[in-house]
Amino acid sequence: MILENIHSPEDVKALDNSQLPQLCGELREFLVENVSQTGGHLASNLGAVELTVAIHRVFDTSRDRLVFDVGHQCYVHKALTGRKELFSTLRQFGGLSGFPKPYESVHDAFIAGHASNSVSVALGMARARTLKQEDYSVLALIGDGALTGGLAYEGLNNAGASGEPIIVILNDNGMSINPNVGAMPDHLSRLRSKPAYYHFKKWYRSLFGKQPEKNGLYRFNHRVKSFLKKSIWPRSTLFEDMGFTYLGPIDGHDLPRLCDMLQWAKEQGGPVLVHVHTVKGKGYSFAEQNPGKFHGIAPFDPVTGLLKKPGGESFSSVFGKILVDCAAQDSRVCAITAAMADGTGLGPFAKEFPDRFFDVAIAEGHGVSMAAGLASQGMIPVFAVYSTFLQRGYDMLVHDVSLQNLHVVLGVDRAGLVGADGETHHGCFDSLFLCAIPGFTVLCPSNFAELRTMSRQALFDIPGPVAVRYPRGGEGAFRENKAGPAAVCLRPGTDVTLVACGILINNALSAAELLEKKGISAEVVKLNRISPLEIRDMEGCFGHTDTLLVVEDSFGAGCVGQRLAAKLAERGMAPKKLILRNLGKTYAPEGSVTELEHSFGLDAEGIAKAVEEERHEQ
After folding, report:
1. Strand locations in 431-566, DSSP E?
2. Residue 67 in contact with residue 124, Cβ under 8 Å?
3. Which of 78, 239, 328, 485 would give a disulfide with 273, using CB separation of 3.0 to 4.6 Å?
4. What is the rounded CA–CA span in Å between residue 335 and residue 494?
5. Coil, strand or helix: which one is 289?
């Protein structure tokens, strides 16, 4: 075994070229073995094995800065930088993160989790290097999927014009931005990747001094060469027109060529884009055949490829079925996704109503604006989007939707704590910023029955912009349909009022039972709507106790509890004691939702404990 002796990138550099294929094979076995136990992003990592090894052969990531885009392909990097023994804790509470995290290792240059920002971040690092007169390489590793986000082009446009030495590696494992069509592109690609070609170009540039670009003859020859190349291969000029030296496309599983190409890119002294073709799921047949399923997958049997615990009904799948029914009822209903059709439950809608289904790729801001355009012309657009990614469309929610009070419906999926993906993916902001936008109605179903009712209300009964927010996974023990009023009292009490919305109502009800055993009478109020939050719409739900506890899986500033207390105070109903149970100002790490709720005191035990401690202080 070679991998068991790899403890740092220096060990990778020390290997003989003949050992590298075996290392790549062992890395793939390592990935399948470990991710089958913990779950995680598998197919993207399998496809980036040779590319990652090549990067560590050519660069020193303890000093050179490697910026991942999203980070779905960082597992091999982590295994080669001293963390392979931690993979049994991958995405677990207190364990190894599934994304690059600088606090884990000096080899992780920047946190990653959302798409399309890598080039912008890398350019900032490159400019800092120049200003501080330091010497190291800066790389941005971006997938073709992330190039569907507008921020990627903002970064590329600025980086290409900057003249800064920066290397952008385009890991193209699906849609090709510049299709490799015909024999001539392949011939030119192979010619460019030969060491003799690099050495000739390096020698030729040296003839004109340290800054050949300032030599008139060099500039003339370069223009002639560029003209001829564009005539032969016009498809390759997109990045070159932006100011990059374009290298590739090359086979991303040809390790010697990758190393040669990256070495050549390192020596260029300006913006370089290396276009690499890889196969997502490479080396594991199930992942190659179904890369979408194995992109982010729960624990599975590595022999059969089947999930160890088959998924059941979820809020996402129920929401998707509701939209199909509503679209059959009303031809104005349209569905929008940002490259997450299956994740948001819209797969059935796409099959049933392909003309009314729109996948905008990784472009949430565009998705919001397009929904506004649809609504302005009388359609009923529904944008199903993960809470954490909806953050990327905030300006559009304000400018394009709210200002004109357009009837856009948001299916805010993965609201609240989501589990193993960690702080970059928890949906802990939407309940804060959506409620701050004028005109928005925000509904919070607690179970599938309420989701069905509230979704129909959002589509057909409530004017203006509406958001229906729901968590990842399935429903809890509370399954009564109490949708309708803004709030409803589920349990009377005389000592303390426990308030929750969404799935957290289960924890509040369980806490009330625990308190009852301690002789404390707890009232439980469920909020069905958190915006607008008007006490006049909640008659009979408050004013029965002198202590109010509000539990939320969001951050503290601007939370529902603060707004509710202010509204009660306005009406002279302020409680003597207010207890807020939320995340405060702390980002939640990786871990199961159960573990995270317990760590923040959001579970039944934590809620009951907070009430007992307050009464003890009194």
Report:
1. 441-443, 466-469, 487-491, 496-501, 522-527, 529-531, 547-551
2. no
3. 239
4. 46
5. helix
Two structure tokens written together for 374: 């649809």
Assess whether pLDDT exceeds 90 at residue 432.
yes
Which residue in the block uniquely carries the two structure tokens 């996704």? 337
Do residues 496 and 586 lie in contact, with contact meaning Cβ atoms separated by under 8 Å? no
Of the pLDDT bands very low, low, confident and very high (cuts 50, 70, 90), residue 616 is: confident
Beta bridge partners of 549: 498, 579
Question: What is the overall mean pLDDT for the chain?
Answer: 92
Strand order of the sheet with strand 245-251? 65-68, 138-143, 166-172, 271-277, 245-251
DSSP tag of 427: B
Burial 86-120 (b: 16+ CB within 10 A, else e): bbebbbbbebbbbbbbeebbebbbbbbbbbbbbbb
Question: Can you give the three-state secondary structure of 220-285, one letter per residue?
Answer: HHHHHHHHHHHHHCHHHHHHHHCCCEEEEEEECCCHHHHHHHHHHHHCCCCEEEEEEECCCCCCCH
Q: Residue 184 is which amino acid?
A: M
SS3 category, 327 = helix
DSSP 244: P
Coil/strand/helix, residue 524: strand
Strand partners, 413: 386
Query: Please, which residues bridge with residue 172 across strands?
Result: 277
Average pLDDT over residues 546-556: 97
**Is it the case that residue 334 has pLDDT exceeding 70?**
yes
What the block records as the tokens of 464 is: 């203006």
Q: Please check whether residue 503 is in contact with residue 552, taking contact to mean a CB–CB distance below 8 angstroms.
A: no
Give dist(CA 268, CA 440) in Å, integer. 51
378: its two tokens: 């009388």
Read off the pLDDT of each residue in 418-429 and give the average, rounded to a whole number: 95
Distance CA 490, CA 510 (A): 12
Sheet strands (E) in 299-446: 333-337, 357-359, 380-386, 409-413, 441-443
Mean pLDDT along residues 358-363: 94
pTM, 2 dp: 0.89
Kindly calculate the radius of gyration of the chain based on its CA atoms and give it in whole angstroms: 27
3 state DSSP class of 337: strand
Residue 18 CB neighbour total at 10 angstroms: 7
DSSP labels, 123-191: HHHHHHHHHTT----EEEEEETTGGGSHHHHHHHHHHHHH---EEEEEEESSS-SS---SHHHHHHHHH
Q: What are phi and psi of 459, to 5 degrees?
A: -75, -45
Looking at residue 588, its amino acid is: A
Query: Is the per-residue pLDDT at 539 higher than 60?
Result: yes
Stretch 81-96: mean pLDDT, rounded?
Answer: 96
